[in-house]
Amino acid sequence: CSFLPKFSIHIETKYEDNKGSNDSIFDKEAKDLEREVCFIDIASDEIPERYYKESEDPKYFKSQKTGRGQLKEGWRETHQPIMCSYKLVTVKFEVWGLQTRVEQFVHKVVRDILLIGHRQAFAWVDEWYDMTMDEVREFERATQEATNKKIGVFPPAISISNISMPSSTRSAPSSAPSTPLSTDAPEFLTVPKDRPRKKSAPETLTLPDPAK
């Protein structure tokens, strides 16, 4: 994240022709990291209601070209062909006091994104099943270009003006006051030397005699 140097998200992907049974697929990449294994079922796991579309629900979708679907309970044990997409997600937010909560929140958001994306990939199979690799690359390029136009990509604009400043002040934004280089306190904060100091307590304290 360019504007937050202490915040990063790294996702590595590997594919294998199995049902998610390889628990050691990322042992080399994450041998020194604390990991939590999370299984994602594109048919059974719930997604946020605002993203739900019946046409993209694997429980109801049936592919016209491949005959795949509908994915009912226990589909991973019966459907062929089958492939697992393994994801190694590393989130770092190195800000004291917020690190754990932010990292946990980002992991949850990433999980939802992966779940929705893989549901769509299955439900859109009839659109990409006959595509060549060149057509896939062209589709990726066109999608990236359309996304950039939608969200807007603007180069950073920096304006610099030459303004002569007194030697006793340092340069600062026009909205900020100039800060003197001198370490002496300003005049209005200086305590007069001849002003008598206030005493916080009397010099002597007289207590009543309990015998009287």
Give a verbal description of the structure.
With 212 residues, the chain is α+β, with helices and mostly antiparallel strands. The chain has a domain at 7-149: Alpha-D-Glucose-1,6-Bisphosphate, Chain A, domain 4. It is 25% helix and 9% strand. It contains four helices and two strands, in the order E-H-E-H-H-H. It has helices at residues 75-78, 99-123, 125-128, 133-151; strands at 7-16, 84-93. It has a two-stranded antiparallel ribbon. The protein starts with 6 loop residues before the first strand and ends in a 61-residue tail after the last helix. The relative contact order is 0.13.
The helix/strand series, from N terminus to C terminus, equals: EHEHHH
Q: Sum up the overall morphology in one term.
A: globular
Question: CATH topology of one domain, which one?
Answer: Alpha-D-Glucose-1,6-Bisphosphate, Chain A, domain 4
Number of contiguous helices: 4
Widest sheet, order of strands: 1-2
**Which homologous superfamily in CATH is the superfamily of one domain?**
START domain
As a percent range, the share of helical residues equals 10-25%
Weakly predicted, low-confidence segments: 167-183
- Rg, nearest Å: 32 Å
Distance between the termini: 78 Å
**What is the CATH level 1 assignment of one domain?**
Alpha Beta
Which structural class best describes the helix and strand composition? alpha+beta
Average per-residue pLDDT, rounded, comes to 76
Largest sheet: 2 strands, antiparallel
In total, how many beta strands? 2
State which percent range the strand residues make up. 5-15%
Q: Which architecture of one domain does the CATH hierarchy give at level 2? A: 2-Layer Sandwich
